[in-house]
């Protein structure tokens, strides 16, 4: 069942899959996602994610530990920043 109003209208409030790999997450998302009559913002037609993705080397990706408004524990923010910097 999809999120109910008003939560389905919040772009930061999302219920979705967690997986160990991007490929597993894509497979899971393809199985559970799609239009739902009770959710006015669900994508129509259903979006199918690819099974594999290309290399992202050279992409510029933004990072914000708190999205500019949320309280985040200092240690969590530091660890997240270190992880983001390690992959650049």
Instruction: Give the low-confidence spans.
Output: none
- Give the total of domains: 2
What would you report as the Rg, rounded to the nearest angstrom?
16 Å
- Count helical runs: 2
Beta-strand residue percentage: under 5%
End-to-end distance: 38 Å
Number of strands: 0
List keywords for this structure.
88 residues; mainly alpha; 2 domains; 27% helix; 0% strand; extended
Describe the structure.
- The chain is mainly α.
- Helices cover 27% and strands 0% of the residues.
Q: What is this structure's SSE topology?
A:
Blueprint: H1 22-32, H2 74-86
Quick structural overview:
This protein has two helices and no strands. The protein has 88 residues and is an all-alpha fold.
């Amino acid at each position: 069942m999809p999120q109910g109003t008003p939560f389905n209208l919040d772009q930061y409030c999302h219920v979705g899959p967690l997986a160990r790999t991007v490929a597993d997450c894509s497979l899971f998302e393809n199985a559970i996602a799609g239009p739902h009559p009770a959710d006015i913002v669900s994508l129509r037609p259903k979006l199918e994610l690819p099974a594999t993705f290309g290399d992202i080397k050279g992409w510029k990706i933004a990072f914000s530990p708190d999205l500019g408004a949320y309280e985040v524990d200092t240690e969590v923010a530091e660890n997240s920043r270190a992880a983001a910097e390690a992959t650049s």
